[in-house]
Amino acid sequence: MPEFKLCIANPKTGKCYSKVVKDEEATPFIGLNIGETIQGDVFGMPGYEFLITGGSDYCGFPMRRGILGVRKKILASGGVGFPRVKKGMKKRKTVCGHKIHERISQINLKILKEGKKKLEEIFPIKKEEEGKEKEKPEEPKEPKEKKEAKKEEKKEQKKDDVAKTTDEEKADKQKKEQK
Question: How confident is the model over 61-111, as pLDDT tens digits?
Fold first, then answer.
């Protein structure tokens, strides 16, 4: 039975939500193409309407519009699967077809019409994740004495390096004068 990971993008907020659909919830996706719409009632999101914008297969190859079949090697000059690096640059890339089948693992969706329930209610943020978003990992703080000692060591190293180069220059001058 098919299983898909849905990546649902909300263009109004810029956030992305993920949901895994299996068996009966996943079967309506089979046979749809990139660019088609699907109702959210089918997989537990009543009132929502989504646009299929892409996806990837079980090996990670991206789906690309206009490709018939399961997988093909194309000469790409830009677009899905190959960002154009230099003008005129082309490269042979493997991409997946635009039709959803059993071997697709991820489907990207964009919200066209919102339902009565907000996405925050459907996909609640766990307390652990919420704490991670707010707190940034801090580096362990060193005492001021250690920081100052390190600065002094660096200054001394620079002085030693400068002294070595001047000593070497003097030695070179003496050798030239003796010749």
Answer: 999 998 888 889 998 888 887 877 788 888 898 999 999 999 999 999 999
CB count, 10 Å around CB of 42? 17
Question: Cα(27)–Cα(20) distance, rounded to whole angstroms?
Answer: 13
Domain definitions of the chain by residue range: 3-125, 142-179
* CB-facing half-sphere around the CA of 172: CA atoms within 13 A: 6
Q: How far apart are CA 29 and CA 14, in angstroms?
A: 24
- For residue 51, report the phi and psi dihedrals to the nearest 5 degrees: -110, 130
